[in-house]
Amino acid sequence: MQEPLLGAEGRDYDTFPEGPQSPGPGARPGVLQSKKVFLATFAAVLGNFSFGYALVYTSPVIPALERSSDPDLRLTKTQASWFGSIFTLGAAAGGLSAMLLNDLLGRKLSIMFSAVPSAIGYALMAGAQGLWMLLLGRMLTGFAGGLTAACIPVYVSEIAPPGVRGALGATPQLMAVFGSLSLYALGLLLPWRWLAVAGEGPVFIMVLLLSFMPNSPRFLLSRGREEEALRALTWLRHTADTQDVRWEFEQIQNNVQRQSSRVSLAEVRDPHMYRPILIALLMRFLQQLTGITPILVYLQPIFDSTAVLLPPEDDAAIVGAVRLLSVLIAALTMDLAGRKVLLFVSATIMFAANLTLGLYVRFGPRALAHNGTVGLENMPLGGTEQPLATPTSYLTLVPLLATMFFIMGYAMGWGPITWLLMSEILPLRARGVASGLCVLVSWLTAFALTKSFLLVENAFGLQVPFFFFAAICLVSLVFTGCCVPETKGRSLEQIESYFRTGRRSFLH
Fold it and tell me: Cα torsion at 136, 140, 146, 149 (round to 10°)?
């Protein structure tokens, strides 16, 4: 049975009660207390909207560019793999930059800074006259996405009260999904250049709104700006009296003071420091190995290469809508069901979906005649393959349904909860650097998968990646059971004290 997040008394540890601790008689919990937190969260997660939009930009654009009449923009298989995957290289660089910017500029200013490469990247893709402009624009939007991916979850977790942190922790993933769905929907209406133009809007709205939001009280306290931190916390808790937040402020202040110095290499060897970092890193690694990024990036081309009943662009839009609905369900249940239950359910659904997709591709009807002997360098996407086979039965709904279940499973657990747990369990003293490291590892893994996906498909068949992703989902189930702690209803200070005890029980 999952042991509650409680600990024994000790020199650096306060026993946690079974329910959330009361902040004192003057506090006003509930929705009213969180209204301004919701506003600040919305302003920040607009950066995730742009991230989700940019991530799947290639899904409708690759089929359009394969048919381009301009030889400078027409993509071969290898060029398409670079166009799809270079975003993840940019995201890795953004995560690496976040290791510095998160603690140097602060969470809020780092998110606002991401607007610069994002706006430039969209402009380059909108006015692209050659492949290099497409690739550079894609890399810049990836850099912005990697930066926001490391900064936004930390900002949201540090401003949210424990009672709504699970729900708010799902909003970065929710907005990324909404951004992806918006791209799929607009892809049915707009040419590919105007899709890039439309991506500029949320970036400017994010900067405008964030300019009125406070910085994280924890970050301000770490910089010795106590009065500003108290004002920020008072504003976020929607109260005019600083006494209403005094208990919470003192808890945060004590934790920040205890960890005011930077982490040394010797301290990293301490279990209470490396265990949460290692758990967060492995979760981000496994999250990518489930196949989410290549499936999203190449969603429409995947449907193009399988026998499907509906047009591929309609399938992509349907999957985007299912993904949005699933993240909404996760946001509503995360603070009720708990993190681990949703992770188990998520990995199980993804395993079944990936296995089904692999079996369908291997034994089901063929849409294209596979030709593994044609050179990748000179073969346009769809240029030498036979035309799509005419679907003859409802069996051809399997790819759509399996992909919908995969996206549903991911969006209910391993999507939002991985981001949330990263921001919850990382030690405050190492949170800025460690979150950037997590994003770096995540996107380097995504680059390797996305770059190789089309090449592996061409050499061995589309079923091979899906069988690999299914195996990783089984590994994720074991990892969740052995290593992931339950953090539902606990403050960040309680979670950190929990790891500090050095007990092994959090693994069970």
Answer: -140
Q: Tell me: the pLDDT tens digits for 444-498?
A: 888 888 888 878 888 888 888 899 999 999 999 999 888 787 777 676 667 777 7
Radius of gyration of the chain (CA): 23
CB 164 within 8 A of CB 335: yes
Provide the domain limits for residue 305: 31-219+262-507
Alpha-carbon distances of 185 from 91, 189, 222, rounded to whole Å: 24, 7, 43
* Domain contains 5: no
pLDDT digits (tens, 9 = 90+) for 181-200: 888 888 888 888 999 999 99
- H-helix or E-strand spanning residue 286: helix 271-289
Amino acid at 504: R
Residue 230 is assigned to a structural domain of this protein: no
Q: Which among 197, 60, 49, 46 has a CA at the least distance from the CA of 122?
A: 197
Q: Is residue 307 part of a domain?
A: yes
Is this model's pTM higher than 0.90 or not?
no
The answer to whether the CB of 357 falls within 8 A of the CB of 403 is yes
Distance linking the first and last C-alpha atoms of the chain: 8
In a domain, 10, yes or no: no
Domain of residue 463, CATH code: 1.20.1250.20
How far apart, in Å, are the Cα atoms of 64 and each of 36, 221, 455? 43, 51, 20
Separation of alpha carbons 69 and 26, rounded Å: 68
- Pick from 504, 470, 469: which is nearest to 485 by CA? 504
Q: Are 78 and 393 in contact (CB under 8 A)?
A: no
The answer to whether the CB of 406 falls within 8 A of the CB of 66 is: no
